[in-house]
Amino acid sequence: MTNFSEYAEQYRRALLEDVIPFWEKHSIDRECGGYFTCLNRDGSVFDTDKFIWLQARQVWTFSMLYNRCEARQEWLEVARHGAEFLIKHGRAPDSNWYFSLARDGRPLVQPYNIFSDCFAAMALAQYSLASGDEQAAGLARSTYRNILRRRENPKGIYNKLVPGTRPLKNFALPMILCNLAFELERLLPPEETEAAIDECMKAVPGEFLDPEKNIILENVAPDGSQVDSFEGRLLNPGHAIEAMWFLMDIGIRRGDRALIEKAVGVVLATLDHAWDREYGGLYYFLDRHGHPPQQLEWDQKLWWVHIETLIALALGFAQSGRAECREWYERVHEYAWERFPDPRYGEWFGYLTRRGEVLLPLKGGKWKGCFHVPRGLFRCWKVFEGMKEK
C-alpha cells in the first residue's frame, strides 16, 4: 500500500516534470497568439482551430499554478499569452463568448454554448489575481453576471428543442456554477458569493439526486421530477463525481460535515454503479434503468472521468477517513496510472476503449486540453501533502 508521501511526490513530479512542460513546449502559438490544443501524441499540431473553453482553461491552469503553486514568471507569461488573445478575439458583439475561432482569431462557431462563458470567467478571474489586470477582472465579473442572466435558457436562439413538449433542466450548468462562485469570490461582494453557492447547493445535491440509488441524474424536469426518456435516464458518472468534490470544497469552507458526508456517499454510490466489473475503469455514460444509452461512446474510458474521480476520492478520504474511499482510490489510481500516462512522449492519453486500450493517441483536441490532468495532479498532490503533514 503506497503511503501519502509517495502519492504526493508521484503527483508533484507528474505535474511539474511531465504534463506542464508538455504544454509549455507544444501548445503556444507564438505567431497568432493563444494556444494550439489539437496535438498529436508527440505534441505536433494537427489542427489550428481554437476552442474558447480550451483557450480559457489553459489560461486558468497557468494562472492557478502561478497563484497557488509557485510564482514562476514563465507561467504568468503563458497565461498572459492566452488571456490577451481571449480578450481581443473571444467575444461576439452581444458580449457572449464564441465557441471557436480560426487560428488568427476570426470567429468560426457562434456563442451557442454557455460553457465558453463559464471558463472565460474562471480564466480571467484567476489571471487577474496573478497579473493585477483590472480589465480582466472587470470582464470576469461582467461575464459571470451575463451567465446568471442566461442560465434559464443557456443556448438562447441556438436552442433546437421545441418549447413546452418535454422541458428539462441539465446538471452541467448548476454544477459549474458551484465552482465558478468560488473562482470569482475575490471579485464579488460576499453576499453575492454566498447566495450563489446556496442556490447551487439546492440544485446539485437536491433536484438532480435520485434518492433511491443515491446517484445524480444528468437531466430532470423543471420541478426536479424524473423523466422516462433517453435524456431523463442519462447518467454521466464523471460529471456527478466532479460535482461532489466541488460540494466537499463548499463543506470544508462552511464547516458543514453533513454536506461532506453526503457528497462522499454519492461518490461511492456512483462508483458502485459505474465501475466496469469486467475490464475495470468507469463508463462514460449509462442509462439509469440499464437500457442501452443513446451515446455510442458510452463504454469508452476517458481521462477526465478518472482524474476527477481521483480528486474526489483523495479529498473524500482526507475529510471522512472512510475506508471505502481509500480502497476505491487505490483501485482507480492503479487503473488510471497504468493506462493514461504516456511513458514515451509525456502527458496523458484521453480516450481508451472499454478494454483499456488507447483508442485515440492524441494529447489534445476539441475537448481535451490543458486543464483536467494538471488540475487533478495539483489537487491530489496537495491533498496527500496535507495528509502526510497530519
CATH fold-level label of the largest domain: Glycosyltransferase
CATH architecture of the largest domain: Alpha/alpha barrel
What percent of residues adopt helix (DSSP H or I)? 40-55%
H and E order: HEEEHHEEHHEHHEEEEHHEEHHEEH
Provide structural commentary.
The structure is a single chain. The protein has a 3-stranded antiparallel sheet with strand order 3-4-5. It has a 3-stranded antiparallel sheet with strand order 12-13-14. It has a two-stranded antiparallel sheet with strand order 1-2. The chain has 2 domains: 1-30 and 208-390, Glycosyltransferase (Alpha/alpha barrel); 33-160, Glycosyltransferase (Alpha/alpha barrel). It starts with a helix and ends with a helix. The chain has helices spanning 4-26, 52-68, 73-89, 114-131, 134-150, 172-183, 190-207, 237-254, 257-274, 303-320, 323-339, 372-389, and strands spanning 38-39, 45-47, 50-51, 100-101, 107-109, 169-170, 209-210, 215-216, 219-220, 234-235, 286-287, 301-302, 351-352, 358-360. With 390 residues, the protein is mainly alpha-helical. The chain contains 12 helices and 14 strands. 46% of the residues are buried.
Keywords:
about 400 residues, mainly alpha, Glycosyltransferase, 2 domains, three-stranded antiparallel β-sheet, 14 strands
List the helices and strands and how they pair.
Blueprint: H1 4-26, E1 38-39, E2 45-47, E3 50-51, H2 52-68, H3 73-89, E4 100-101, E5 107-109, H4 114-131, H5 134-150, E6 169-170, H6 172-183, H7 190-207, E7 209-210, E8 215-216, E9 219-220, E10 234-235, H8 237-254, H9 257-274, E11 286-287, E12 301-302, H10 303-320, H11 323-339, E13 351-352, E14 358-360, H12 372-389
Helix pairs in contact: 1-12, 2-3, 2-4, 3-4, 4-5, 4-6, 6-7, 6-8, 7-8, 8-9, 8-10, 9-10, 10-11, 10-12
